[in-house]
Amino acid sequence: MDPTLEKLSARVREVVDLRHAASILSWDERVYMPPGGSAARGQALAAIQRLAHERFTSADVGEWLEYAKAHADGSDAHSEATAILAVTARDYDKATRVPASFVSELAVATSAAQHAWRQARAEADFSLFAPHLDTVFRLKRQYVAFFPSTDHPYDALLDDYEPGMKTSEVQAIFAGIRPRQVALIRAIAERPQVDDRLLRLPYSEPALWDFGVEVATAFGFDWTRGRQDTSPHPFTESSGAGDVRITTRFDPQEPFSTLWATMHEAGHALYEQGSDRRWTRTALEGGTSLAVHESQSRLWENLVGRSRPFWEHFFPALQRRFPAELGGATLDEFYRSINRVQPSLIRVEADEATYNLHVMLRVEMEIAMLGGEVAVNDLPELWNEQMREYLGIVPENAAQGILQDVHWADGLVGYFATYTLGNLISVQLWDAFQSVEPSRDDLMRHGDFSPLLSWLRREIHQHGRRYMPQDLVRRVTGSGIDPEPYLQYLERKYREIYGL
Amino acid sequence: MDPTLEKLSARVREVVDLRHAASILSWDERVYMPPGGSAARGQALAAIQRLAHERFTSADVGEWLEYAKAHADGSDAHSEATAILAVTARDYDKATRVPASFVSELAVATSAAQHAWRQARAEADFSLFAPHLDTVFRLKRQYVAFFPSTDHPYDALLDDYEPGMKTSEVQAIFAGIRPRQVALIRAIAERPQVDDRLLRLPYSEPALWDFGVEVATAFGFDWTRGRQDTSPHPFTESSGAGDVRITTRFDPQEPFSTLWATMHEAGHALYEQGSDRRWTRTALEGGTSLAVHESQSRLWENLVGRSRPFWEHFFPALQRRFPAELGGATLDEFYRSINRVQPSLIRVEADEATYNLHVMLRVEMEIAMLGGEVAVNDLPELWNEQMREYLGIVPENAAQGILQDVHWADGLVGYFATYTLGNLISVQLWDAFQSVEPSRDDLMRHGDFSPLLSWLRREIHQHGRRYMPQDLVRRVTGSGIDPEPYLQYLERKYREIYGL
After folding, report:
1. CB spacing of A47 vs B226 below 8 angstroms
2. ipTM for this prediction
């Protein structure tokens, strides 16, 4: 190998190794760290992230990249080496545009913002958080200015989570979804409501955990390359395809949330576990975007895990685990219960029919705040108005409204859209799979998920970050991100459940 | 603060932060990591250790240290700043003497040696490990040559674990212990043996775990700054005084080993948790040597945990947890059982009377091998001879003999002596505590460990690495490391138990 290219590869390997280390430290912080470890953990993570940033953005990396581009074999635009070089160069360009002093300033500001957000949420007092939110958006405007001008300043923020995605595309997609999802919810509200009390019986936590493990195993989660623990907020953390960890939580008020979390996070984890070994310790390791990642989690959680065929297979096993609670229930009662539609205040508890509306409201606010079109102090009222319009309900206080999510306090602006884009992609993939595997639903009925996983492995997982997200979606489905399949899926599903 | 001194402090903080990160990665590797994470973990740990080494040994650190020494306030030889500077300079000197190329060569050699050792032990075939052991000792001789000449080449190895300790001192101490411990064991062998079958009943693992937690809590282990998990080999890992983790294990053949491990590791952890906040993120963080560390673990495990006064307090609680197993046992039966002397083949299972002889045998071999006085192939026979002479028993195979410990495969030569030195120091401290607290045994009888912990905090723990280990022992006990108190303790204890 050319010695300059080897230097470049070695440096990227070192940076990826440091990121793997940071990933384990971050996992531990949320799962097992005793409270007294907090200060030292913050310092250790900061040291590793700073070194990873310094080592990646140093001038020699820029020189090696220029050399690599100049010496690239133009005859093979689709080679692995070309793909690795392109993504590495894109990462380098983004990482070097933002000065270290700004990164520090943002870190200090978001650290203070998180602290204020926690207090504000505990006291349901938005005014405690408002000045910090103002600062975050001021800094985000500065951040945008480090990048080449785009059609819309929000494009630069979206690009951090969903490379290549434009604000105008998101707005067009949302405009297509909004009226039909609002209409669907209103139609459902006029029908007799589903009784889901059987989901709130005193289910045993270990028995639900075991059932979740059974399901994740059936999905194909590789326990020799991963594990499951509990944490207050379920998440997936990967330090390479050989060590992908998921968490779940147990809430006695909503016992089945532990199962949905396991399925959702297992979906993320299958993506990470499926990344091809060729990309190990290169820029191509991992998932290509948050939306594509979310398409995997939502596919397994909703399209598989809340489907009737899935439960035709698994409901008897669930009944055997919970004879007292479910022995007398029918599959139909259970299926309807887990698919009950109920406009609610909290995004993470929202059902499939209402979830996207929670997301849209946030994205619209982000775009308006970034453009300076709304003042921070007007946000709570705007929130309530939009909730009333989309979902017909209004939070009693800011803790159940604008203060419910940590994203903005963390400086994550441009992130929310990926939740909805992920939902849309999940159904596009679900349909594409059925077109190559017409017996898809029968496979679910037999608990045979390996054809689905093999197809996802081949079409999505193995590629890591090789393809831009929209290119990947187009390769697999023949279309860009398209809301129509999702809307049809929702309408079909709830037509049957609610007799619309 | 002087900007040059601030640069030095900042660099040390960064290096300590990286070590904290490595500590968590290493803990996770042994406690929770799925097997598939092994390769990525090795790479992540190597990257962090390499960067920590590079950042600490860079030429600017040497210049800052020279500047700091030149500008030191000579009027205050005992100040904190002077202590921090002295230890930092000592660490720098040691770290810069060994070339990076040698560190890599040793890492490669020990990685291969560990692999071979595992296989050799599994097959009880020393010949598989012998060439690797030869290489390790060849490299250790090279390592010694990087340091200034000492009275004995082994001094340079000892110094890595027990700063300032000389081979001649260790040999003199061992020569004093050997005949009296051998004589003690022979005298015990002639007495009626203790029946300890009540320790091998089918005790419940969770109940023993809970009892261990109760004991560690009574010792003063701070659970907000630590935790306990299980691992095949119990250990303590600290990433600063705010996050100190211990592990234990459960062996149904030796159920109480889980309790001894908890007490032993809690002793190490109390030392780490007691390091003064002033030393946080400086070279003075942590314990001053392995022997002083072992003095803490052995004090809590043996002098407290295997004493009659301790069990006068805790035996009723243990009986309440295990009414079927221990309801009919007397305190005396239990006390004698847990102090049974039985020459055995495996060091980590050895009782207090025989343990040091296991250590001496290893240390004598290390010294002879380093000096080239014995050939690697003669070691198994030498092992058997020494075992026969010291303990009157001979292993059936190398797995129960020379292959039982991982230390040499890990490149840890000079380490074993600290186990015995720690035993000796533990009794010196135990006596010193009684001289200031004559009611020591009554405190144990009442389960009141806080005066002991406060005394250890003040005399040992808070100082971190401020004092050289032998200076610290002398400060507290008025004497250097001295075997006499330990021998008297053993003789007194077993005289009573065995009616010698």
Report:
1. no
2. 0.94
Over residues B325-384, the pLDDT tens digits come to 999 999 999 999 999 999 999 999 899 999 999 999 999 999 999 998 999 999 999 999
Strands A236-238 and A244-248: antiparallel
What's the token pair of residue B130? 């012998």
**Which of B19, B29, B30, B32 to mutate: most A Cβ within 10 Å?**
B32
Enumerate residue ranges in chain B where pLDDT < 50.
Answer: none
Q: Give the number of A-B residue pairs with CB atoms closer than 8 Å.
A: 128
Indicate the helix (H) or strand (E) that contains B422: helix B417-436
| Candidate from A28, A32, A40 with C-beta closest to B242 | A40
Domain boundaries, chain A: 3-97, 124-500
In DSSP terms, A229 is beta-bridged to A247
C-alpha distance from B37 to closest chain A C-alpha (Å) = 5
What is the CB neighbour count within 10 angstroms for residue B314? 19
Q: Which residues contact A340 (CB under 8 A, 6 or more apart)?
A: A193, A194, A196, A351
Q: What percent of chain A has pLDDT over 90?
A: 95
Q: Which CATH number fits domain B153-500: 3.40.50.720, 3.30.428.10, 1.10.1370.30, 3.40.50.2300?
A: 1.10.1370.30
Whether B243 sits inside 8 A of A32 (CB atoms) is no
Separation of alpha carbons B114 and B106, rounded Å: 12
Give the global pTM: 0.95
* B51 in contact with A, Cβ within 8 Å: yes
- Distance to chain B for A235, nearest Cα, Å: 17
Instruction: Flag whether residue B34 sits within 8 Å of chain A, measured between CB atoms.
Output: yes
Query: Which CATH number applies to A124-500?
Result: 1.10.1370.30
* pLDDT, tens digit, 9 for 90 and up, residues A42-65: 999 999 999 999 999 999 999 999
Q: Which residues of chain A are within 8 Å of residue B20 when distances are taken between CB atoms?
A: 40-41, 43-44
